[in-house]
Design goal:
266 residues
């Protein structure tokens, strides 16, 4: 091997190590999964990995659902447990954002909305939003009887893809905040392209398993993209931009709405 290749190999290895450390950082930030202390973690730019983390969360939930099915647990009870573990796996990170966002949007004075959202206390509208989101997820998932594992993966993946789009497309409303480093780490709309391709491939897998493949693939892909884009655009319209709380709200509402729509598609 020529000595001239060693610098190139070193650069490529450095890039791979950096990407791996960023992915591990995404797991540590977005989930409550145990991460060994000796792992090298990088948190700058972790949002680009969020949809992949969503697919991983969905696969774990699918395994749980399958295990409960083997134990002959009724569908509604299984669905409730899966949704509860869904929240636990993320530490309620996105649900907390959805609750704070609901409290903020309930304020009639637009100038006070960010102040209310920053308050750690949960108001009545935040509690109602959490109840509605969880009820929608449990009820919708209980009505889905086939390929439940894949539905979980797609829903969790599309929800986080919508978050990536919101980060790169809309302004961040605070000079500082828990979501500010996401905005600083993602600068180009092309950051959302790789995971979009991955999610479309997963939608293709769902179509391959369906008796009406092209209809299922097209409707699943269109629904995922449309709902993910719509939720981010709606919050931007209401607030004039996004915060860390609205990033979480995009995830939760995209998941809930897409899961409801999946009851018709699958």
């Amino acid at each position: 091997m020529s000595f001239k290749l060693y610098p190139l190999i070193s650069i490529k290895l450095g890039v791979m190590v950096k990407q791996l450390s960023t992915f591990l950082g995404a797991i540590a930030f977005y989930t409550c999964l145990p991460v060994p202390q000796y792992w090298l973690l990088t948190f700058s730019g972790i949002a680009r990995w969020a949809p992949l983390v969503g697919l991983m969360i969905g696969s774990l939930l699918g395994l749980l659902d399958r295990g409960l099915s083997i134990l002959t647990m009724p569908m509604l009870a299984r669905s409730a447990i899966v949704v509860a573990v869904w929240v636990a796996l993320t530490g309620g990170l996105h649900l907390d954002g959805a609750m704070d966002t609901a409290d903020g949007l309930a304020v009639l004075d637009p100038k006070r909305r960010l102040q209310v959202m920053a308050d750690s206390r949960t108001g009545a509208f935040g509690a109602m939003a959490a109840v509605i989101i969880l009820l929608l997820k449990v009820a919708a998932f209980a009505d889905i009887t086939s390929h439940r594992w894949l539905v979980l993966m797609l829903v969790a993946g599309w929800g986080r893809w919508g978050q990536v789009v919101a980060i790169v497309r809309y302004p961040y409303l605070k000079p500082e905040g828990k979501g500010a480093f996401h905005k600083a780490g993602l600068r180009s709309p092309w950051e959302a392209a790789p995971t979009l391709v991955l999610l479309l491939a997963c939608s293709g897998l769902q179509g391959w398993l369906s008796p009406t493949p092209w209809f299922t693939v097209g409707l699943t892909s269109l629904s995922g993209v449309a709902i993910a884009l719509f939720t981010g655009a709606w919050f931007n319209q209401q607030l004039g931009g996004h915060t860390g709380d609205t990033y979480g709200a995009v995830v939760e509402w995209t998941e809930a709405l897409l899961l409801c729509l999946m009851t018709i598609i699958v």
